[in-house]
Amino acid sequence: MLSHPYSLELSRPNFTGGSLQPLLGKSEAHLWLQTVPPLEKLLPQLDFLSPEERRRAERLQLPADRCRFLAGRLGLRSLLSRYSGIPPQAIPLDHSSTGKPYWRDPPLPLQFNLSHSHERVLIGLRWQYRIGVDLEWVRPVLRWQRIAQRYFSAAEQVRLANCPAPERDALFFQMWTQKEALLKGTGRGLAGSAALGEDSRWVTLPLQVAGGYVAAVALEIRKDGEEAPAVRLYEDVDG
Predict the structure, then answer these.
(1) What CATH number did the domain enclosing 100 receive?
(2) pLDDT in tens, 16-26
(3) Engineering a disulfide at 68: which of 42, 116, 154, 228 sits with its beta carbon 3.0 to 4.6 angstroms away?
(4) Which domain holds residue 83?
């Protein structure tokens, strides 16, 4: 896992429909930050989901959890449809044992990942190379020492301990999102974090997103010395 200079652009594009595929360059990663809409706006789109996705949504008892899940899956399908030209309901999404969604037998080498927290959803896409994203709403972490001891390195634990208390929650989530984005990009769950170390095949970048949130993106780099792709962040674009 390496920190790396990179190009980040914040955009508010106004697309009028059709495929977005030509707009995603081979040396780019596109990130989409969207607001979770109310449940009544999501319900008419349920036909776009698979039966398994609908069952997973129904098992969520809290309305806020159900909204986040539906917004994430519907937003992902909408974007995959725009980039590929394939109808959203025709995209056969599945998920790994760690919960990472993937496209079974995709006709295009489109890699993607998503994260949601509180009232926002973050979706990342790029060609061929893997990508991981994580988004967190900054909130009090009451057991930060216990969590840090389990998942963070000794140096990270010292950094947290020495951080002024009013700034500690934000720092905790900044560190957490970078770790989680890499784990999601590689397809490992938190159980794999203990073996997580420096990896020249990945670049992990912090992101400046909406106020009250922190985020990170992890990008696979397959060649030594290869530059990280340009990262373009789009906000609040309806599918």
Answers:
(1) 3.90.470.20
(2) 445 555 488 88
(3) 116
(4) 8-235
